[in-house]
Amino acid sequence: MHDFLQQLVNGLSVGAVYALIALGYTMVYGVLRLINFAHGDVYMVGAVIAYELAVKLAGLNSPVWVALPIIFLGAMVGCGALGFTIEYLCYRPLRHRPRLVSLITAIGVSLLLENLFQNRRIFGATPRNLPELLVIRPVLSIAVGASHSPVIVTNLDLISMGLCIAMMLGLSWFVLKTKMGLALRAVSFRVDTASLMGINTNRVISMTFVLGSALAAVAGVVDAMRYQVDPLMGLIPGIKAFVAAVLGGIGSIPGALLGGFLMGLVETLLKGYLPAQYNNYSNAAAFVVLILILLVRPSGLLGKTTVEKV
Amino acid sequence: MLLSVNGLTVCYGVITALREVSIEIDRGEIVALIGANGAGKTTLLRTISGLLKPTGGEISWCPPAAQVKSDAKTLEYFGATKDLVGMRADQIVRLGISHVPEGRQVFANLTVRDNLLLGAFTLRKRSDIEEGLERCFGLFPVLAERKNQRAGTLSGGEQQMLAIGRSLMGRPKLLLLDEPSLGLAPLIVRQIFQIIREINLHGTTILLVEQNAHMALTVANRGYVMQTGRIILSDKAANLLENAEVKKAYLGG
């Protein structure tokens, strides 16, 4: 029981990161029907910005409660600008071309970012550790039943899950309650018709990229603190978050969250319970779960197959 | 002249969909555009509203800038003529041209109310939006009953009413209607045309694209007949209804 609960905490903490990245995939897919394969690398850039800022701030001896907000906001602004630029320069000129063209461009942008950041003048290929700004330590320990070792929640787990929930609430409010959110929903239904309402669809699409990239930045900063920063770190989480988005039903915002948390849980539980010699297969097993779910529900858990009346 | 289209040519790749099309619409008119499937009617509307870019020609928009009442006469001052070619669709909407697309295209996953609010996207004042909603619910009482229902659950006729109501929210000067009768029962079609007439009486100019030529020419003041991307005939609607060629080709003998 204790082990299970501990894995649950770990799974939710990892899942929150997947969910944050998956939101960007699903939002962009919603408006453009494009899988933005460069999205995982935007997450990496978030981590790199976090590293650079953390080094500067550590040099200034700034306290954690000053440094952390600066790092998070800095990474969000930086990645937001990057997302805007990627859309403006790479996808917008190809908007009216066959969709495959944009998809291949997305892969190109992904490779470009990965290789650009391996350049020594920009970041370099060697993974680096964030300076010790935030000491990861247990902040909650919950005794469970008769077990001697309590379930441990670290401060990073709390930050990860807390920010994910806060971002999710903020995003829901934005999408469901504001005028721009309504425009976003209209554009994701059909771009042409949305423009006939007087909506500047280019602006809405840019905004979607900025929001999605800012959410990926949050995920990048959390993982920069949890693991290491390296230019290829976006690959695996990027793919997993993409899978999470598909699992939840691509285009659906609650679906991305559900998929993200599910992905994190399945992966952590498998890592915890598979026999040691099979441990390396936990990633593969997570994808098997995906395939099984998609066999039963091809449009994802919360995805909708919309029926249009003519 | 409210809108005049001059020598408009539109191509899809190598296929020319419109060849040198010219039409004119005066303020307060209902103009019908009839023709067979694939004649280019929808292409013309989509080009006027900025969804398609023409390869040649111009579209001039000249709305009355101001009206002054003096001695029982209304004097109109016309503003500068604008060329719509090259403007984005959302900018054209803001000028007062609203397009009800073919197949209605209501936002099926949003509520009726949200659909109407999207129609009012260009409005800023809350009072204007409330007034628009009231006007729309007055015109289509059934929409008031269903305002919290998802648009996708409405019947075809109700969806058409919603599409028209949505496009009226921004108080357009010119309404472009693309096949409002498509796929609807005759009784509903009559109801929709009744409403079109009513909207026109309240001062909105209408360009109506229809395959149901008889219905369209009955409500319209003037009509244009399109065939394979060209205007082949234009006349008063009453004359077109009597025209032997039109009768044979579009009115079922």
Please provide a written account of the structure:
The complex is a heterodimer of chains A (310) and B (253). Chain A is mainly alpha-helical and 310 residues long. Chain A is 69% helix and 3% strand. Chain A has helices spanning 2-32, 39-59, 64-91, 99-116, 155-177, 179-189, 191-196, 201-226, 235-248, 253-273, 282-296; strands spanning 138-142, 151-154. In chain A, strands 1-2 form a two-stranded antiparallel ribbon. In chain A, helix 1 packs parallel to helix 5 (155-177) and helix 2 crosses helix 8 (201-226). Chain A is globular. The N and C termini of chain A lie far apart (54 Å). The model of chain A has no long low-confidence stretch (mean pLDDT 89). With 253 residues, chain B is of the alpha/beta class. Chain B has a domain at 3-96 and 172-250: 3-Layer(aba) Sandwich (Rossmann fold), CATH 3.40.50. In chain B, 36% of the residues lie in helices and 30% in strands. Chain B has ten helices and twelve strands. Chain B has helices spanning 41-48, 89-95, 112-119, 126-139, 141-145, 156-168, 186-201, 213-219, 237-242, 244-250; strands at 3-12, 15-25, 30-35, 56-61, 64-70, 73-78, 82-83, 97-100, 174-178, 205-210, 222-227, 230-236. The model of chain B has no long low-confidence stretch (mean pLDDT 90). The interface between A and B is medium-sized, with 24 and 33 residues.
